[in-house]
Amino acid sequence: MRLALIVEYDGTDFSGSQFQLNARTVQGVLEDAATTIFGSQTGRIRMASRTDAGVHAVGQVASLDAVTEMSHGEIRNAMNGNLSEDVCVRLARSVPADFDPRRAAIAREYRYVINDGPVPTPTRRRHEYHVHRPLDDVAMADCAQAFIGVHDFTSFAAASIDGGSNVRDVETANIRRTDDGRIVFDIRANAFVRQQIRRMVATLVAVGSGSRTKEWVASLVATPRRDGATQNAPPQGLTLQRVVYEINFEREPPLD
């Protein structure tokens, strides 16, 4: 059967989500666990969204082929029994044999968390970006609206390894300040170019600190250019929240 796995991980000690030789990755540890349980016939695990080293996920989706009579719950528990504490399979579900977690996705949702308080929070340092000055979150929220729509995001893209298009459809881009004083940036799009969100966040921080204007950011969107937003916000503030499909894995009844 082909299985869809919803995977959560703390990205701090991973060299990203995608398999790399001689590096610890989320895909690599999932494949090791699957091989231990199901044998070598499982083959390569596919991932819905590529995350950089240090980036986290609570709703990453992977696909796995396995010959098994185990229930969904038994598969989930067996995988977690062979995974380290910084990654887990939250859910396993059967899907059609041609399901591809990347190509079948209709949207991805990410969240970035900023702490602009006077001191860092050591217990949250792996999951937020501490900016050493107060930011104007109202100006940032206004500026973020420039990202919404179908645009060429070359200004916010790292160099592409495949030379593909940088056109993406951003559905929502919202900034809010939480009750505990954090600034949270939530963004949803059909897909993202490499390092797009971290570069967006860096531009929003520049606006919030007063060093850049809303018009400058709007010009980066309107006039795509490689020398546009060249600064990256650090990875630890970013989390993949959810990958959206026509079918809702969370609501599909399990076999167990």
Automatic annotation (TrEMBL):
Keywords: Isomerase, tRNA processing. GO terms for biological process: tRNA pseudouridine synthesis. It comes from the Eukaryota. It catalyses: uridine(38/39/40) in tRNA = pseudouridine(38/39/40) in tRNA. GO terms for molecular function: RNA binding; tRNA pseudouridine(38-40) synthase activity. InterPro entries: PsdUridine_synth_cat_dom_sf, PsdUridine_synth_TruA, PsdUridine_synth_TruA_a/b_dom, PsdUridine_synth_TruA_C, TruA/RsuA/RluB/E/F_N. Gene3D superfamilies: Pseudouridine synthase I, catalytic domain, C-terminal subdomain, Pseudouridine synthase I, catalytic domain, N-terminal subdomain. It is an enzyme of class 5 (isomerase). Its EC number is 5.4.99.12. Residues 6-101, 144-246 form the Pseudouridine synthase I TruA alpha/beta domain. Substrate binds at Y110. Pfam families: PseudoU_synth_1 (PF01416). SUPFAM superfamilies: Pseudouridine synthase. The active site is at D52. HAMAP family: TruA. PANTHER family: PSEUDOURIDYLATE SYNTHASE (PTHR11142), TRNA PSEUDOURIDINE SYNTHASE-LIKE 1 (PTHR11142:SF0). Belongs to the tRNA pseudouridine synthase TruA family. This is tRNA pseudouridine synthase. It comes from Geodia barretti (Barrett's horny sponge).
